[in-house]
Hints:
By secondary structure, the protein is mainly beta. The chain has one domain. Helix content is 7%, strand content 29%. The chain contains four helices and 24 strands. The protein has helices at residues 67-72, 98-107, 285-288, 308-313; strands spanning 2-11, 41-42, 47-50, 54-60, 75-76, 82-83, 86-91, 95-96, 114-115, 155-163, 175-184, 195-200, 205-209, 218-221, 223-224, 237-238, 243-244, 247-248, 317-322, 329-331, 334-336, 342-343, 351-359, 375-384. The strands form six sheets. Strands 4, 5, 6, 7, 10, 12, 13, 14, 19 and 23 form a ten-stranded mixed β-sheet that branches. The protein has a six-stranded antiparallel β-sheet with strand order 8-3-1-24-11-22. A two-stranded antiparallel ribbon has the order 2-9. A hairpin with a 4-residue loop joins strand 12 and strand 13.
Amino acid sequence: MRTKTKVNLMLLSMGFSTALAVAGSTAATLAWYANSTMAKVSYVGTSVSKSGRFSLGLVDNLHLFTPAEAESYNCEIESGETVDGNTIVWSSSALVFTSFLSAYLEKYGYAVNVLSPVTTNSRAIDSNDNVTLYKAPETGQADIHEEVIRTDVFLRFQFAFKIVNSDGTKAANQKIWLTDTTVETDLLETARESIRLFVNNDHEKFIVKPADDSNTPGYTTVAGMLDLDGSDGVYDYDKNTGREIIYGEYDKTGGFEPTYESTDKYEDEGSFDPDELENVNDLESRFTANASTFYAKHNSQCHPLTNFNDVKARYKRAYYQTATTIKPVVSAGGYTGGHPVAYTDSASRIGYSTITIYAEGWDHSLVDEIVGIPFNLGLTFETDRN
Length: 386
């Protein structure tokens, strides 16, 4: 028997977001680095639906909801049920109302209607470390990576799952998969590309890019030349040395450093060759026709890199699973493979999964033109009952 629960995260623009502008900018397609306080992806409302005896709840580890308050949101806290001291607020109907999820986010200090872009920095595909979210780099400060302290720039749900048998007992040792991670928008296709999920459970931790349906994991390059101030249309450079700055993370093992021409300079300020960029994500032609943080020009006063290909080969990457690679293989014998987001254990018989939703600032699709554009993120959780 297979049962499902479907989660529809409706990320839609608020009216005030569409009025945001990039002050002092001459380029229409600057990315979040140029004005990180301006480039935000907005949404309103979150709704969760489920079916059958596959129950979904949210972990209230700070005990911020009383049973009466949970009931007011058409949810319930089962008397005497705590796991590791944590209370769980379960949906008691086919729909977990938007108002409850908004209240949950607000009580825990997470984003209520705005996602502000951040970055994870580099991450191996098989890493089991927690993800740390970082702010944008400061102009000219390539080696400073400041951790995001504020929680109101991303979403985080601590989901709980239980599968109730016909005799009222809960099923142990069951896997829950994320079988559908669609991201849709009616206005601009690139608005969906920058959204990431970080899934954290007791067995593994991984990033998911919902908009990518490839059969193999992908990656985001987290290094490169950038035009952070957005006022001159050229890549940032050290005014004293005339050398362009490499931001982000690149492999410096063995004492490796970029090397530059000592006397020669760029002959002109032509556009940066798109073929030299890493992971451009098939930007629309109008993006490549204009300057952006990622796509600028060389200043004619700068000394070119003599080992650019070696530098580019050392750019670090944040690897992610795709909407396809996390799914299980479905056969007559049941579900196998994929990357389950939760497991019901043998003791509490409840499964947990913390899912963080954020906008990846190093994704080249994240430019100011998508600010305020509405998009929908749909998550479908599914389990296989053997």
